[in-house]
Amino acid sequence: MSVGAFVKTTVTRWLTSNLRINIKRRFAELRRRLAGRDHEILYFHRADDPYCQLMVQALPDLAARFRVKIRPLVVERLPADMYPDPARYEAYSILDASRLARLYGLGFPERAVVPDRFSVGMANRYLASVQDDPNFLRIAEEVGAALWRLDVAGVKRLCASAGIEETVLAENEKRLRTLGHYASAALYYEGEFYIGLDRMDHLEMRLNRLGLGDGEVHFELTRLWRHTLKTVDKSVAGRTVEVFFSVRSPYSYLGLQMIAEFAELSGVRLKLKPVLPMLMRGMKVPLAKRRYILMDTVREAQLEHIPFGRIMDPLGYATRRAMAIGFSLLQEDQRHETNTALAFFKAFTRGVWAEGIDGTTDKGLERILVKAGLPASKLRGALPEDVWRKQAESNQNELFLAGSWGVPTFRAGGETLWGQDRLWAVIEALRTN
Prior knowledge:
By secondary structure, the protein is an alpha/beta fold. The protein is 54% helix and 9% strand. It folds into two domains: 38-223, Glutaredoxin (3-Layer(aba) Sandwich); 225-432, Glutaredoxin (3-Layer(aba) Sandwich), CATH 3.40.30.10. A hairpin with a 2-residue loop joins strand 7 (409-412) and strand 8.
C-alpha cells in the first residue's frame, strides 16, 4: 500500500470509529450543559413530505417516553441539487410511506397521489405560523390528513388563519442548511441527524444511553426481517429478487451483505444488476449529502454488525476494474448456474469499504478474489470496457423504468424497493404478490 493510500484509510478509519463518534457526542453534551440548554430535538417538517405525515403520528410516542423537548421547524424549499431525480423520488416516497404506515399501524392513504400545490403552500404557511404551538404535532397531522386525501376545502378550512410566513420558512430552511442537512422529516439532536422513521431507533438508543428514556426501542420494526423469515411461506424459496447496486455506494455494500444473508435464509434467487455510480455518469453528489451518507452508513453498519470504516474509495479506475471482473463472472454464472459474481461483489465492496484494499491494483484485486473463494486467475478474464459498459447502461435503464434512480434497489414481486433497509418490504412483496 502506498503512503497516500495508508494515510487515506487511516483517516477514514478514525472518522468512522466509535471512539471519535463517542468523543464528539460527549463534547456535544458538554457544550449543551455549559450553554444551559435543555435536551431538545429539532424536527424539520414539510406538509407535502409523506414521511412527515408519518413522523407527526410517531413523535408523540417519543415525546412521552423521553425527557426531551421536540421543537418543530417548518420548511418548504429544499436544495434541488440534493435530489438527482425529484419526480421519481416524489412518486416513490408516497408508495414507500404507505408501506411504512402499514408496518407501524399509522394513518396514510393507500392510493395517495401528489397533493394540490395551492393546498401545500397554504398548509406550509399555516403550520409555520403555529410551529411554536404545544399541539403542533396534532395540528400537523390533521392538516396533513386533509392534504393527502386531496381535501382542498378541508385544507382551506383548517388553514384559514394562515398569514404570510415566508420569513419563518426561510429562517428554518437556512438553519437546516447551516446544521448540515437537506431533507425534511429530519430530527436533529446535538450534532447528528436522524431521517424519518427508519432512523428513529438510532436516536432512541442514544437518548437511552444518556439516561433520558425508558430503555426501550419502539422504532426498529424495519430491522426485524430476520425474525419474520421464520414464518415465510415455503413458496418464497426459488423466487427471484433483482438487485441493482453500485460498488461505489456504501449503502450498496451493506445491502449486498444483507441480501446475500436474506437469500441464504429464505432460498430466494438473486439476479445482480450492477450500475455505474452517479459521479461516473456525470451527476453530482453535494458535500453535505456525502457527509451524511458516510456517517449514516457508520451507524447502520454497527447496528447490523457489518465491518465498515477502512475506506479506499473505488471511484474511477477501481470501479471500472470491478465491473469488468464482475460482469465476466455474471456471464460464467449464467452458463454454469453458479454464484461467483455475488461472492466477488461482496468481497470487493467489503474490501474497499471495510478493509482498505486498493481495487486499482492487480495485487489488491487478487486479494479480493481469494477472499471471495475464487482463483486469482479470474483477473485475466475481465471483460473489455465497451462490453461491460453496455450491460451496465442497460441495467441503469431498467432501474429507471422500474421507477427508481438510486442504489441499492430491489425488485421483488413486481415491486420496486429502494434502500438497504427495505428487506422487510422485500419479504412483504414476495408474500403478497
